[in-house]
Structures are given as structure tokens and as C-alpha cells.
Write a structure and sequence with these properties.
Helix 1 (9-22) packs across helix 2 and helix 5 runs parallel beside helix 6 (132-140). The strands form 2 sheets. The protein has a 7-stranded mixed sheet with strand order 5-4-3-6-7-9-8, with helices on both faces. The chain has helices spanning 9-22, 28-40, 57-71, 76-80, 104-115, 132-140, 153-165, 209-212, 228-240, 256-265; strands at residues 82-85, 88-91, 122-126, 145-150, 172-176, 189-194, 241-250, 269-276, 282-289. It is α/β, with parallel strands linked by helices and 292 residues long. Helix 7 links the parallel strand 4 and strand 5 (172-176).
């Protein structure tokens, strides 16, 4: 391909894929497509119908800027301002974690448990971040009510915007709080969900650069063992679960066993089998509030 050939959509995608692959991007073709669709203001799938189109200079310049920042390590989700989760688009900024597919396990399990609840469930999402858990539960359980808690006011603002976007804001109460610190210790919730910080401090420097250098450490660093936040969450959650209510916590496969012990050690909780992700790794620990 010579330099005098036009920079069509197809050529831009081919060149950028090779360029990002050389920069060790994990998914260079997908990154190229997402960034070009964003610059062109279209759906990614539409690119496949316009391979021969030559975008104007404004689109090409915006695309070049995005690719340059991606090559420098900035995650694609922060560049385009959104990420899909549970088949819904969510706004994300560097104030919140980028949603991961593994976290969808929490939603799937919560929806399954809610089906067996005789009354509209009251759910808590502790450390809501961008609000993916709260919003997905509200969207799929139109009679439920959700309390979304987070220590970060900036994260709560993003979560509110996502709830409004998906027309479920009326079902969700947003609370700025360090776990349940600002809520009374009384049985209130049928389900408590959390994707808390669970990376051990010593492991932070070994994270992928795009995570370590761009995503909020407040939402990642779980202390020396990676379970510092969870150790505080478990007893607080046990106090606030209704009898037979469920606690679901996303964990790292490296500390899942330790979290299972935390659940087993709380006499108010009955530990259930840990849910494994598609890679076969322990990912969601769960326990049920015992009846008195």
C-alpha cells in the first residue's frame, strides 16, 4: 500500500490495528474500531458498511489523537467515555472503575435470588462506582428498590447520570458513605451486593499499566491482604440483612479463600458455595443471613 492511496475507513483500521499491536494493546482491532466509530460518531458495526469511505480531516485528526492517547496507555473506555455492561451502555470517567465482564456474575446471581423473593426486594450496592450493579438490578427488577453507596462523591455523580440515562433513577437512593457508616444497623436489605477494592497493596504495582496508572486506586487497593475493606464490610452487612437475606461479594481469586473464612467466622451468616467465572476461578463469594 503506497502513501498516495486514500485513507479509507478500511485502511485506517488496518494500519491502526498493526500500530496498536506493536504497542502491546490486548485487543488492537477492537480498540481501533471503537475509537474510529467514536471519532466518526457512529455505531461500530456501521464501519463494516463504509470501508471504502474516506473520512474528512476533522474525523481523521480526532482519530489520530485518540489512537495516540491509546498507544500511551489510556484505556479505551476513558477515551470514548463509556463501556457496555450487561448489554447496557454506561458512562465512565477516571473517577470510576471500568466495568468488567466478571462483575456481571453478581447481577446474574442477584436476579436469580430476587425471583424467589416473595416481596419486591430491597437491595444495597456497596461501592457502586459507575452504578452498574444498582442500575442493572433496577432495570431488570422494576419493583425493587436500591440503595447505592460510595465513598466518592464524584463516583456517585456518574452513577446518578447512568441511572437517569436508563430511566431507573426513581428506584435508586444514592448515599455518600464509607460502606454502611452512614446507615443504621438494622435488618433492611434482602440483598447486599459489592464489588469492593480487593487488590493487595503490594500487587498494585504489578497491575496492567492501563489499570494501575489510570483507574482510581480508591476502588482498587484493598490493603495489605487485599481484604481490608471486605473485613469491615462483612459484619456491617450481616447487621443489615433481613433473615434469609443474601450477601454477594466479588473477590480476587487470590484472596477468595480468605474471604470465605471471614464469612464462615461470622455466626450470623451461613456461607454458600463460591461462584466461579468463565475461567474457572473463584469470583463471587456468597452467604445468607441466618434466622434467629
Amino acid at each position: 500500500m503506497t502513501d498516495d492511496q486514500p485513507w479509507t475507513i478500511g485502511r485506517l483500521l488496518m494500519w491502526t490495528t498493526d500500530f496498536l499491536r506493536d504497542k502491546n494493546a490486548e485487543s488492537p482491532r477492537l480498540d481501533a474500531e471503537v475509537l474510529l466509530a467514536h471519532a466518526r460518531d457512529c455505531q461500530r458495526i456501521e464501519l463494516y458498511t463504509v470501508f471504502e469511505e474516506v473520512p474528512d480531516e476533522q474525523v481523521r485528526q480526532q482519530f489520530r489523537d485518540l489512537v495516540s492517547r491509546r498507544a500511551g496507555g489510556t484505556p479505551v473506555a476513558y477515551l470514548v467515555g463509556h463501556r457496555e455492561f450487561f448489554s447496557l451502555p454506561f458512562q465512565v470517567t477516571p473517577d470510576v472503575l471500568i466495568p468488567r465482564p466478571e462483575t456481571e456474575l453478581l447481577v446474574v446471581r442477584a436476579l436469580d435470588l430476587a425471583k424467589s423473593n416473595p416481596q419486591p426486594p430491597h437491595i444495597a450496592d456497596v461501592g457502586t462506582g459507575s452504578g452498574v450493579l444498582a442500575v442493572c438490578c433496577a432495570k431488570h427488577l422494576p419493583t425493587c428498590s436500591v440503595m447505592a453507596l460510595d465513598l466518592s462523591p464524584q463516583a456517585l455523580q456518574i452513577a446518578k447520570q447512568n441511572a437517569t440515562k436508563h430511566k431507573v433513577a426513581q428506584q435508586i437512593e444514592f448515599v455518600c458513605s464509607d460502606l454502611f457508616a452512614n446507615q443504621p444497623a438494622e435488618p433492611t436489605f434482602d440483598l447486599i451486593l459489592s464489588n469492593p477494592p480487593y487488590v493487595a497493596t503490594a500487587e498494585m504495582k504489578g497491575l496492567e499499566a492501563g489499570v494501575r496508572d489510570y483507574e482510581p486506586h480508591l476502588a482498587l487497593d484493598g490493603g495489605e491482604q487485599g481484604t481490608e475493606i471486605i473485613e469491615r464490610l462483612v459484619p456491617q452487612a450481616a447487621e443489615r440483612l433481613k433473615p434469609d437475606g443474601w450477601l454477594l461479594i466479588e473477590v480476587s481469586p487470590t484472596n477468595a479463600l480468605r474471604v470465605e473464612y471471614l464469612l464462615s467466622d461470622d455466626s450470623r451468616l451461613a456461607k454458600h458455595e463460591t461462584i466461579h467465572d468463565l475461567a474457572g476461578l473463584p469470583r463471587v463469594v456468597q452467604a445468607q443471613r441466618k434466622r434467629e
